[in-house]
Amino acid sequence: MDKIPQLEIETRIAKLQKILVQQQLDGALLLWNSDIFYFTGTKQNSYLFVPQSGDPVLMVKRGLDRGIAESFVKDIVSIKSPKEIPSIIATHGITNLTKIGTELDVMPVNLYNFYGKIFDQIEFSDISPAIKQIRAVKSAYEVNIIRQALKIMDEAFSLVPSLLREGMTEIELAALFEAELRKRGYAGVCKMRAFNQSFFYGNVCSGKSGISPSFFDGPVGGTGVSLSDPQGAGWKIINKNEPIYIDYTCIYQGYTGDQTRMFCIGDLPEKLKKAYNDAVFIKNEAVKSMHPGVLAEEPHILALKLAEELGYKDNFMGYKNNQVKFLGHGLGLELDELPIVAKGIKTKIVTGMTFALEPKFVFPEGAIGIENSFVMTENGPECLSITAEDIIYIK
Amino acid sequence: MDKIPQLEIETRIAKLQKILVQQQLDGALLLWNSDIFYFTGTKQNSYLFVPQSGDPVLMVKRGLDRGIAESFVKDIVSIKSPKEIPSIIATHGITNLTKIGTELDVMPVNLYNFYGKIFDQIEFSDISPAIKQIRAVKSAYEVNIIRQALKIMDEAFSLVPSLLREGMTEIELAALFEAELRKRGYAGVCKMRAFNQSFFYGNVCSGKSGISPSFFDGPVGGTGVSLSDPQGAGWKIINKNEPIYIDYTCIYQGYTGDQTRMFCIGDLPEKLKKAYNDAVFIKNEAVKSMHPGVLAEEPHILALKLAEELGYKDNFMGYKNNQVKFLGHGLGLELDELPIVAKGIKTKIVTGMTFALEPKFVFPEGAIGIENSFVMTENGPECLSITAEDIIYIK
């Protein structure tokens, strides 16, 4: 399996250390899976300490041999309990700590109190905003992995006409579609950083299912197969002449591709065809308006204006009181990375940032829209999705 | 879709309120998805306040109509921001709060600080141990759902001989097997409460893949398809005459069934056949030793003793330095519920508790073992798994 190259790891650690210096932190204690993977290349059960200067120390509780084989971090040692962290890092010359950064956006209170006892007299500071910023800007290596994720998506989407038939349930189509992604290397859990948010593969909605909102903070919910997981494909039978909305992630080597395409058995009402063309228009206008340094709110403000002008005030990004307040989101090791493309967000979208743009409309008759994945380049957003954009009609 | 019955909801709320009285808490503010679903029957984006007495108030941020349709809680209201919680509950007569319980085992530090400002001058206490205890004891309604999950698993396991062929990859078999679970209603993300733990469907390991440890705290890891998700099925080709280990969850209506069965194309070495029989023997002895009120450590202590006597000291529940320290775990809305069946755990296993027992051995040649799901009854553990236990040989 592909290892994250040594130069990638060293560059990432160097970026973090630069911020540790700026923030006058003696080091960073990283515990969150996705961060440990990002900075080490391994996701064995471990704890990572990155000092302000010098080599990081990866302490592996379980899977030491795999950790050593998988990671280019030099100092990888065994640990039995996190209580040993201070003494282990001391043997690596890391002593006299007064203030360290950790991931307070995800660390539970009880665990924080536990680490407070281990690191007695040491002040913790939230390093997560800095980590999110570092992770938001992708290297060519990372962009290439996301490109591969979208290649897999393209293969799976191209098979939909052979999987889809009138009278099957949404969940049956979802099962077959997901299997196509999975056998090509869909790696597992779609990771999210926000509290309580989780996501399973993606969403198949047909016709009126599209109007169901969900816990998940996305424009289109879906009924899901049970009230315990009220989002995505449900038990509804797929009929002729209704929009079939397929919005999926592909997690490849940890990185997320995200794409939506529309299908239909038969034909769609003109209203929905027009809405789809308008969604593509809004996506294209948003892309045209973006350049390195654009504020993340600008494409959303433009899209809101266009959607309203086109008469979709109650339909854009959800139906009426269940609308969501963004046009896109960052993509990487987590589905909810920076930038958030949303009104009010002043983050600059710089070269190397990867993100999805997903203008969508929801009507009582169903959900319709498009989503592509992009990387910001010097010349503006480059589309990483390679699947044709037309609605696929199956006769 | 099936709603959680009104009596279930009322009984659960009453149990929580009894604990609020015991702990002298004015109420509980519940934010964690699985807890909100357990106590309300809906998982729309919401906040739940349960006062020490009187009706709970469910405040729905998104999906109000679905929340009202899905839940038997009487007071369900709209909310725009969690900042409104104190004023909303005040309009429901809930005032003069001094000490409230919340889920400090999962609530991130930053969110805790945010709620600390909203609930100025109010002390938070950790209600999660009580919630875990309540949730550990299942009603007949809940046990019946887990029974249905295991019925689905039985159907999927019975199809393995038709899916499996020599020369396919583990991930290909996993994709096909998962699709069989999914189309029968596998609901989505397999939920875990522990920090950083996540799980995707289950695990297909063939031959030497079985020795790979993983981040996940289970006896058998698997290589996974990438270093970002180093567990479960990988790219290894499935060969003749090696153990094919299939350990899967089935999430049905939110509840988890968990089961492991063994398959083989051709025949297995006598050593592995004997190990499998010994795993079944240990499982049976553990079951025989269990009765209502047994301490959760006892079956594990017995299993450790038997495994060592049988010569599996280095193989039981993982290989050498990657062994895990339990025999089983609770099953419910989360995969890591109580009871933890592990040495040192003095929890009493009482009637209604549901759990998996999974004696397994790991050798350089592969992983082998069995796992069934159980509910504790007055007469001891009742097996909820209905799949025959023999290794399935495919010629």
TrEMBL record, chains A, B:
Name the keywords, alphabetized: Aminopeptidase, Hydrolase, Protease
InterPro entries hit by this protein: Creatin/AminoP/Spt16_N, Creatinase/aminopeptidase-like, Creatinase_N, Pept_M24, Peptidase_M24B
Write down the Pfam families for this protein, in alphabetical order.
Answer: Creatinase_N, Peptidase_M24
State the name under which the record lists this protein.
Answer: Xaa-Pro aminopeptidase
Annotated Creatinase N-terminal domain ranges read: 12-137
Q: What Gene Ontology molecular-function terms does this entry list?
A: aminopeptidase activity
Instruction: Give residue ranges for domain Peptidase M24.
Output: 145-378
Any keyword Protease?
yes
Q: Does the keyword Protease apply?
A: yes
SUPFAM superfamilies to which the protein is assigned, alphabetical: Creatinase/aminopeptidase, Creatinase/prolidase N-terminal domain
